[in-house]
TrEMBL record:
One of its GO terms (cellular component) is cytoplasm. This is UvrABC system protein A. Gene3D superfamilies: ABC transporter ATPase domain-like, ABC transporter ATPase like domain, P-loop containing nucleotide triphosphate hydrolases. The gene is uvrA_2. Its main location: cytoplasm. Keywords: ATP-binding, Cytoplasm, DNA damage, DNA excision, DNA repair, DNA-binding, Excision nuclease, Nucleotide-binding, Repeat. One of its GO terms (molecular function) is ATP binding. One of its GO terms (biological process) is DNA repair. Belongs to the ABC transporter superfamily. UvrA family.
């Protein structure tokens, strides 16, 4: 164990405290794996020095700079809005040059453009300076220096294209009105940019080569292949720079991201993938004597990749830093120098330190974590009988190699394989495409922010408001923080948000409502001595008892308990929840809407993400209940206890990216442990050897 320094008190934490969480990257279309990992600047520098013919200095190789971006798509790689259909260049802004209903003269958005002060609103678009027109169309989050008095004082400026993309293109089509869909159809034509073939770069940047490859070629390669390309470059002048590039690529591959390419849109990464990109970025930092906090960095990692993640964390530690890891994975806990176990349970029943010491000492304790760490694995040796099968035929998307797989119905199927092997592509994309009866419940599919809560997701918020309204003799809207009941200071958010420009926003509890989000009129009304704020602060079980007389509320809240979210308050904002919590909330919504369990065909993408081992057992019990009622459950998962519990296992691999995309194994878990060609099988056998098998077997 390394020499530990004097411990910090939590009421006096170290000054440098980087937190590396699982928050997904934003929907910025200009952010890629290359930019997020800080590799893009290194590649641009290499090509500016050695690319022939030279395109110029480093900005000339950037799709985010006017000197390097494709002029046709403005560096986006796709043409999503037809400018010629959208703009009447013979007219001025004031005359209605934007051919879209929400930008028509007199509308709110028309006023924002006209009064921004950025361009001459009386000049035809064809006569505007190119830079002014670019700002008008593509500007994002700009603080205006000299807006007209009519412009909203605190508002930032977004150009026409970002406004259209955020307000319409990124919304679910079913949530658009008929008029909006008709207006969009006239101006939208999403296709690969013909000018740059999707590379985002102009002709000069694409023509500049190192050993016959452009920077776009490098960025399009999977990281595991790009490592070999960079290693083969013989350019002594670039040696230190290419060494830094190789180190960063090696680190990305080491955390299970070797299947990604640097031109991958960062907003398409899962929470676990995004966090591992952040880890690699911090490895290149010059910080020392800092305290890093990592929130479940093993999420999404196959056991094969976890030890490489630990190597990276140890490198950060050995550079003179303190590493705090919030984690459930047994291998990560076992590798720790010091463990702090909190509990004994979740929510209001937790928050106390149960244990401090070494991992070996923790395994001998009676805490829930200690019991899970030493619990043997229960291997299902008697799989349940399927009620038939469906076939995924000739799947070729992404890295899949003409894959055909049988999916049994009425049982629990677990899909395994290393990160990037093609699991989600096959079962979360191809399966529902070929068989629309399957519902995919993924960590990224439930969106929401400050105003979205479990009761709004489950569809019981309206009933709760009606119940309070009837008891108080008020209209139900008085019990909505988004309507009459909203606190006038925070507008029903419960917090005051301070915009710090280039830093993350800061949220402080609203003093006027003490974070309840409601105004005094709403808070004065009670139901059985509870205010609406009291009710929304309750856990599912207590809230179900309060609304026991409403059969449309209590059963739906009961699903929160069954999916392992009993510790949440029913009014908790979605933006405080992890990806795993959102996924289980979406599962609760789906199950509460399911009229006939036998018709349920559910695909879950890593449902144990963020779950303690004891909660994994509860989730498996739920799966057994669903299967017992006739449902088909498919879990894409790395957790070895879940794999051992399956009736049927499909292992995809053997590797990631181009080295994966094949079905390595199909069958019961008992046969998987004897499959030498399966990485998953070898690790499951190792876990059984270390922990033993729980008698009696299933």
């Amino acid at each position: 164990m390394p020499q530990a320094h004097e411990p910090h008190r939590l009421d006096r934490p170290p000054r440098r405290l980087p937190v590396v969480d699982q928050r997904r990257f934003t929907g910025n279309a200009r952010s890629t794996v290359g930019t997020a990992s800080d590799l893009a600047p290194l590649l641009r520098l290499a090509f500016s020095r050695a690319g022939r013919p030279s395109a110029g200095f480093t900005p000339a190789y950037s799709f985010n700079d006017p000197t390097g971006m494709c002029p046709c798509c403005e560096g986006l790689g796709v043409v999503d809005i037809d400018l010629e259909a959208l703009l009447d260049r013979s007219k001025s802004l004031r005359e209605g040059a934007i051919r879209f209903p929400t930008f028509a003269p007199g509308t709110y958005r028309w006023k924002r453009l006209v009064h921004s002060g950025l361009v001459d609103a009386d000049l035809a678009l064809s006569e505007l300076p190119p830079d002014d027109l670019r700002t008008l169309l593509y500007g994002e989050g700009l603080r205006l220096a000299n807006p007209d008095p009519e412009y909203p004082a605190t508002s930032k400026f977004d150009g026409v294209m970002p406004r259209l993309r955020n307000s319409y293109l990124r919304r679910t089509p079913s949530r658009l009105t008929d008029d909006e869909r008709e207006a969009l159809a006239a101006v939208v034509t999403r296709r690969t940019c013909p000018g740059c073939a999707g590379t985002r770069l102009n002709e000069a940047a694409r023509a500049s080569l190192i050993d016959g490859r452009s920077i776009a070629d490098w960025s399009a390669l999977p990281i595991v292949e790009l490592r070999h390309v960079v290693a083969s470059v013989a350019a002594p002048a670039l040696a230190p720079l290419l060494t830094a590039v190789r180190d960063r690529l090696d680190a990305l591959d080491a955390v299970g991201l070797g299947h990604l390419s640097l031109d991958r849109d960062s907003s398409t990464l899962s929470g676990g993938e995004a966090q591992r990109v952040k880890i690699v970025r911090h490895l290149g930092s010059a910080l020392s004597d800092a305290c890093y906090v990592f929130d479940e960095p093993s999420t999404g990692l196959h056991p094969h990749d976890v030890h490489r993640l630990l190597d990276l964390l140890n490198r950060l530690r050995d550079a003179g830093n303190t590493i705090l890891v919030v984690e459930h994975h047994p291998a990560v806990i076992a590798a720790a120098d010091h463990v702090i176990d909190l509990g004994p349970r979740a929510g209001a029943l937790g928050g106390a330190v149960q244990f401090e010491g070494t991992p070996a000492e923790l395994r001998r304790t009676g805490t829930p974590t200690g019991r899970v760490l030493r619990a043997p694995i229960r291997l299902r040796r008697h799989p349940r009988t399927a009620r038939g099968t469906v076939t995924i035929a000739h799947a070729r998307a992404h890295n899949l190699r003409d894959v055909t797989a049988e999916v049994p119905l009425g049982v629990l199927t677990v899909v395994t394989g290393v990160a990037g092997s093609g699991k989600s592509t096959l079962f979360a994309s191809e399966l529902p495409r070929q068989h629309p009866g399957f519902t995919v419940v993924a960590q990224a599919s439930l969106r929401g922010g400050l105003r979205s809560t479990p009761v709004t997701v489950l569809g019981v918020a309206g009933t709760i408001r009606e119940t309070f309204g009837r008891a108080a003799g008020l209209h139900p809207s008085w019990f909505s923080p988004n309507a009459r009941g909203a606190c006038p200071v925070c507008k029903g958010k419960g917090v005051i948000i301070t915009d710090l420009a280039f830093l993350n926003d800061v949220q402080t509890t609203c003093d006027a409502c003490a974070g309840t989000r409601f105004n005094p009129t709403a808070l004065a009304a009670t139901l059985r001595s509870h205010t609406i704020a009291d009710a929304l602060a309750m856990g599912p079980a207590k809230a179900a008892a309060l609304f026991a007389g409403r059969p449309d509320v209590a059963p739906r809240l009961g699903w929160l308990e069954r999916v392992g979210l009993g510790y949440l308050s029913i009014g908790q904002s979605l933006d405080t929840m992890s990806g795993g919590e959102r996924q289980r909330l979406q599962l609760a919504r789906h199950l509460s809407d399911l009229r006939d369990p036998r018709s349920g065909r559910i695909v879950l993408d890593e449902p144990t993400a963020g779950l303690h081992g004891a909660d994994v057992d509860r989730l498996l019990a739920l799966f057994d209940d669903l299967v017992g009622e006739g449902a088909t459950v498919i879990a894409i998962e790395h957790n070895q206890r879940v794999v051992a519990h399956a009736d049927h296992v499909v292992d995809i691999g053997p590797g990631a990216g181009m080295h994966g995309g094949e079905v390595v194994f199909q069958g019961p878990p008992e046969a998987l442990i004897d499959c030498d060609s399966s990485v998953t099988g070898r690790y499951l056998r190792k876990a059984l050897d270390e922990l033993g098998e729980s008698p009696p077997s299933l």
